Amino acid sequence: MSNAAERPRLLPIEPRGTLDLTLVVPGSKSITNRALLAAALAAGESRLESPLDSDDTRVMREALAQLGIEIRADGGDLTVLGRGGRLLAPVEHLSLGNAGTAMRFLTAACTLAEGPAVLDGDQRMRERPIGDLVNALAGLGAELELLQATGCPPLRTTGGGLPGGTVEIDASRSSQYVSAILLAAPYAASDVEVRCRDGSIASRPYVDVTLQVMTDFGAEARWLDDATGVSVRSGRPYHARHYPIEPDASSAIYPLCAAAIRGGRARVVGIPPDSKQSDLALLELLERMGCQVIRGDAFVEIRAPEAGLVSLSSVDMNALPDAVVGYAVVALFANGPTRIENVGHLRIKESDRLHALETELARLGGRVKTGDDWIEIRPGPLHGAEVETYDDHRMAMAFALAGLRVPGVVIRDPACVSKSWPDFFTSFESW
Cis peptide leading into 116, omega within 30 of 0? Predict the structure, then answer.
């Protein structure tokens, strides 16, 4: 593991010249946690190659261990001994911190356990809604309940199985509600069909990632013909297998955005050209801003424009929410205003990211306005400041990029990057 936890409370960022950078980023957090659960539910031994080792994936591993799953670390890989869909009832509460994927995915998975489970998190997790998922699982016949009236964790699942059927869900705030049901659905007593209310799914491409992992492990799951929901066939369980984890596109955006801001080039290797990770769509936005994008069989590269970054005026980033924070910092250096729209779901992430961005971009000299689901950024004369990170890994990584050009940027609580990229600042120092 990294020395992230040993880093000082305040980390000054030193400006530097143009970049000439080639690097590998850690494994995908989204794919790692999906593959961990699929391997845990499969029968037999799976090997996950190059998974992410971070706070969020460690939370998932520890919770699965409480549910009776043996997971062994072997070098940089993980061996998972699946139990064929038969999870044990945990002896103690599952304490999931602020790990959103673990909370949502395990809420559904624990309906398959032999007995009850209580799932809880930290104070921020107790502010993150999960009622829509709980209601949908109840609609499929599961027995579970929220333990407070806010629609947020903690919650209790009774276990005993997931009957299945058809259910409608409000997925406008999080695609993870849909992914959670899908991941457990191969072990339901009957086929499962999840229909999304009004056909709306926040961060829709993340459901594509879920379906890819599920089918890779042998399940039968697909979009409905009208693309307003997903169906999963019961009785087609996951099969144990060797499964390589591709690098994390959500992490890759930081070196790519760094080149756009500071100038020069950045290449991230190891991401396959057919990757379904949605944050790769950021490449198209940077290209429209004037960057040169080079795509290879196993790499992506950004080269900054010599004439500076061109503002795109307005962009819809609903499908790539994890890239918004990095892109918002890039927008500080564009030649005009940028309005990022359809991102209301950022308010229920690790922090209220729209509020956090409004506050911290302004602290650096940007002129910023926000609404319920949008943020508008107007570049201004920039200056250094201490940037609050709100215990949010993406705030720390994104605002460090501003310090590549702006003297005097200081990152508060840099250790929060351990949630997804524990070695981020070690890597960053060599850029």
Answer: no
pLDDT tens-digit series, residues 135-179: 999 999 999 999 999 999 999 999 999 999 999 999 999 999 999
pLDDT digits (tens, 9 = 90+) for 239-264: 999 999 999 999 999 999 999 999 99
Count of beta carbons in the 10 Å neighbourhood of residue 239: 16
Kindly report the pTM of this predicted structure. Answer: 0.95
CA distances from 39 to 181, 306, 354 (A): 16, 47, 35
Distant-in-sequence, close-in-space partners of 140: CB < 8 Å, separation ≥ 6: 162, 163, 164, 165, 167, 181, 188, 192
Q: Could you give the count of Cα atoms lying within 13 Å of 222 in the half-sphere of its Cβ?
A: 6
CA dihedral 274, 279, 282, 283 (to 10 degrees): -30
Active-site residue flag, 322: yes
375-412: b (≥16 Cβ within 10 Å) or e: bbbbbeebebbebbbbbbbbbbbbbbbbbbbbeebbbb
Please tell me which residue in 322, 352, 391, 392 is annotated as part of the active site: 322
Distance of CA 407 to the CA centre of its chain: 30
